[in-house]
Write a structure and sequence with these properties.
With 398 residues, this protein is α/β, with parallel strands linked by helices. The protein has helices at residues 54-65, 80-83, 86-92, 102-112, 187-198, 202-212, 232-243, 261-275, 291-300, 317-328, 348-360, 377-395; strands spanning 3-5, 8-10, 13-15, 20-21, 25-26, 31-33, 36-39, 43-46, 72-74, 97-100, 118-120, 126-128, 133-138, 148-153, 158-163, 219-222, 248-255, 281-285, 301-311, 314-315, 335-342, 363-364, 369-372. The strands form 5 sheets. A 7-stranded mixed β-sheet has the order 1-2-7-8-9-10-11. Strand 19 and strand 20 (314-315) form a beta hairpin. The chain is elongated and about 80 Å long. The chain starts with a strand and ends with a helix.
Length: 398
């Protein structure tokens, strides 16, 4: 297996078969479950992998250390894709000591019925392996209450084992460290990973970044995606901006449509926004685009215009679900415009406005457009005005 830096080895696995991460988020390019070995005077394993991959995983470990025992197992995060192999590891290495914080061990007992041989650590505690000294940094709610990170420092390098932080979707295709692979396909997948999974927890992420401020990192070893080395500055900056809900000038137009009338309105709005100078425009049919990608793009761009038909005297179901998902992430600093269509009862626009007033709290832009049955000259003009109003607001530097 790959030696990342002196005495630190990658022993993780790839999952190219799972279609939905957490049963929710598409994995068109798979995902990696990353685990690491520090082979020093004492041997330390950092995080495990999903239990279904244990056969390959234990071979990876044995290829590095042979018959040597493992002294410590650090659990930075208790989600089963990282903790699922704890019980099996303990069968192979019965004298291993599990290192975690107080909340780690409560979850370990709850998930797996495992206790004993525990080393509880608090924020700032240290553990010497020989040439490496480990420092534990508790980062609660990034994105579970027990999450922590581990700094490993020797005389020449500082490596951060960051748990899920700084991770992304996508299996590793041979290379492990960013300097040996083309990372172009990972950047948007990092945004999608963050926005879908961590996005609600902007304040805890900011708190974690403050704890790490001033630490000169040589490597970031996340539990998903590449090991970061050349691009550390970029990935830390991305997490900083996303956790502060910073966006680019751009517009997401998201719509539901049954017979094409709402979609036609969306096209008019998009053209008007483009003619008014907005270059970054993304359009999503809420019934066709997986919400994972819509949420990603909402995190990227400041403007959002949503439109949907009235359905059963309420809001079109898929739009209702999307607005709920956006509200759950406590997204800030966004602009919202809306439009809707109806056959005989105008309800969609009112429901969208209710979502915004009660949950989203985005700045409302433009005049809502209500389309009865199909576009006519008046509602077409209103759609043009909505697109222009959003473009004008987006051009304003805040």
């Amino acid at each position: 297996m790959k030696e990342i830096t002196s005495k630190i080895h990658y022993v993780g696995v790839n999952d190219r078969n799972k279609e939905l991460f957490e049963g929710l988020w598409p994995l068109p390019n798979g995902v990696s479950y990353n685990s690491y070995l520090i082979v020093d005077e004492k041997i330390c394993l950092v995080d495990t992998v999903e239990a279904t991959f244990f056969v390959n995983y234990i071979k990876n470990i044995q290829n590095v250390i042979g018959d040597r025992p493992i002294d410590y197992l650090i659990i930075n995060h208790m989600e089963p894709d990282h903790s699922g192999s704890i019980a099996l590891i303990k069968k192979y290495y019965p004298n291993i000591k599990v290192v975690g914080n107080k909340k780690t061990f409560g979850m370990m007992q709850g998930f797996y019925g495992i206790g004993g041989d525990e080393m509880e650590v608090k924020n700032g505690d240290k553990l010497s392996l020989g040439s490496y000294e480990l420092t534990f940094v508790l980062t609660p709610m990034v994105h579970w209450p027990e999450t922590m990170m581990t700094l490993a420092t020797d005389q020449t390098t500082t490596t951060l084992f960051s748990g899920d932080a700084f991770g992304c979707f996508g299996a590793l295709n041979g290379g492990i460290v960013d300097s040996e692979i083309n990372c172009d396909g990972f950047w948007l997948e990092m945004v999608r990973y963050y926005s879908n999974i961590v996005g609600k927890y902007g304040t805890p992420v900011q708190n974690a970044l403050k704890k790490l401020a001033g630490v000169n990192l040589d490597y970031i070893c996340s539990t998903h995606g590449p090991v970061w080395h050349e691009h550390i500055g970029k990935v830390v900056d991305m997490y900083d901006r996303m956790s502060r809900y910073e966006t680019e000038e751009g517009l997401v137009i998201c719509y539901g449509t049954m017979y094409g009338n709402t979609e036609r309105a969306a096209e008019v709005i998009a053209q008007a926004a483009s003619e008014a100078g907005i270059k970054n425009i993304v359009m999503h049919n809420v019934s066709k685009s997986h919400h994972s990608y819509i949420i990603r793009d909402v995190f990227r761009y400041r403007g959002l215009i949503v439109g949907a038909p009235t359905y059963n005297t309420g809001l079109y179901h898929e739009m209702d679900v999307l607005l709920s998902e956006l509200a759950q992430r406590d997204i800030k600093n966004h602009l919202l415009g809306c439009f809707g269509s109806y056959g005989w009862a105008s309800k969609a626009v009112g429901k969208i406005l209710e979502w915004n007033e009660n949950h989203l709290h985005f700045e409302h832009v433009g005049t809502p457009v209500e389309i009865k049955q199909s576009l006519d000259a008046d509602t077409t003009e209103q759609c043009v005005a909505l697109g222009k109003a959003m473009a004008e607001r987006l051009h304003v530097v805040v």
